[in-house]
Design a protein that fits this description.
34% helix; 3-stranded antiparallel sheet; alpha+beta; 8-stranded mixed sheet
């Protein structure tokens, strides 16, 4: 029996209020649906509630005194993995697409929320409710732009689907978890990816044109563990640009304010997280947060090579040096940037320590952004785990 849902009778916000988070809106899509009246409680940028939602999703909140949980959230295990038979054209080996395809074809779920691109633009996101394997595979490769994944919630309701897989990033998943009880689902699985520094489509174009030698042929890119941005091009070639050679002055303002105010890099509320930053180069980092996540991993594990996660080096000096460099928009000459990248790759943080480096770098930057632009909400907006991480460093005034 389908329960009555309060949102069907709720009074929608006026059109002028359709983005209550204003400039901090991450365009997750919730405001585009009849669930909009939940947004003041559900939006990650209006109501920070990671600890509460962790307890609801995983049975407990993270242990802030356990170093790995402080950084990576509630988890049962972490490992590195790669597909034995990669999916052609996938951003990496295709673990996310494989999990989604297997769950759908084996009847675990009736639909998958994922993101294709528009026919006109490979980087313009187009969220869909996928009902076939082909539709899932058409969504492979990340779209590094703000994406309204949750605008399909009404379609889910109309479809009558009761078992659903949602693939998304942290801000989308926090809003999803906040309204999960209202969706009328019998089973919800959440497959997350780590996410940082999304941009508008115009911002992405500026990044490509400022950074790549051939922006019109870029298929996908990633900020990698070797401290370089890897651009994959249409002809299969790989272009690498050192982090330290990026035109920070030109690029500093392209990131969405929501991303500069986000402290959920590791997608704390997903059942299973698949990324790259805690794994060796060429492998994927997998974080199993709860029994549902373990079920999802078990489904595809026979198709994977796996190995334990490792950690090497000390991130602290590199993070401390990066804080004023970013704040002052320092850009090194390309020869110096390449040399620094080589040196850091040899002696710098690796594995989980690289993941901590990335988290520390972004959390300190984002803390400064909120402190300067939204000082009245700083204390309640920044979660306790992020405050503890940021306190390790000296921040500019």
């Amino acid at each position: 029996m389908t329960a009555l849902r309060p949102h069907q009778k709720a009074k929608a916000l006026k059109p002028t209020s359709r983005r209550p988070a204003k400039e901090l809106c991450s365009e997750c899509g919730l405001c585009d649906t009849n669930y909009i009246h939940y947004v003041k409680d559900a939006c990650a940028f209006l109501h920070q509630q990671i600890a509460q939602l962790e307890a609801e999703a995983h049975g407990r909140s993270r242990n802030l005194d356990a170093p790995d949980e402080l950084y990576f959230g509630v988890h049962q295990q972490m490992l590195a993995a790669r597909k034995q038979q990669p999916i052609p054209g996938a951003q990496w080996t295709g673990i996310v697409s494989t999990i989604a395809c297997e769950m759908l074809t084996q009847g675990w779920v009736e639909g998958v929320v994922c993101v294709q691109n528009t026919p006109e633009d490979r980087f313009q996101p187009q969220p869909i409710l996928a009902r076939t394997r082909a539709e899932i595979l058409a969504a492979k490769v990340n779209k590094p732009t703000l994406s309204p994944n949750l605008n399909v919630l009404e379609e889910i309701e109309r479809s009558g689907i009761k078992r659903l897989l949602v693939i998304g990033v942290g801000c989308q998943i926090q809003a999803l978890r906040a309204v999960e009880a209202e969706l009328g689902l019998e089973k919800l699985y959440v497959l997350g990816t780590p996410c940082v520094d999304n941009v508008t489509r115009a911002g992405l174009q500026k990044f490509l044109e400022t950074t790549s030698k051939s922006p019109e042929t870029v298929v996908h890119y990633e900020f990698m563990q070797d401290f370089q941005v890897h651009f994959k091009h249409e002809d299969g070639s790989l272009e690498k640009v050192p982090f330290f050679g990026l035109n920070t002055k030109e690029l500093k303002d392209i990131f969405a304010p929501s991303c500069l105010s986000c402290f959920d890099y590791v997608n704390s509320l997903a059942d299973l997280v698949v990324g790259y930053m805690g794994a060796p180069f060429g492998w994927q980092w997998i974080v199993v947060r709860n029994p549902r996540g373990q079920e999802m991993l078990d489904l595809v594990e026979p198709q994977l090579d796996t190995q334990p996660v490792t950690s090497q080096g000390d991130r602290h000096a590199a993070v401390q040096q990066s804080i004023p460099a970013y704040d002052k928009s320092v850009t090194l000459p390309m020869w110096a940037a390449k040399l620094m990248g080589v040196v850091i790759e040899k002696i710098g943080p690796k594995g989980l320590e690289y993941a901590r480096f990335s988290i520390d770098s972004h959390f300190t930057r984002n803390y400064l952004y909120v402190q300067r632009h939204h000082p009245d909400t700083l204390e309640e907006h920044v979660p306790e785990f992020a405050k503890r991480i940021v306190k390790q460093y000296k921040l500019p005034q």
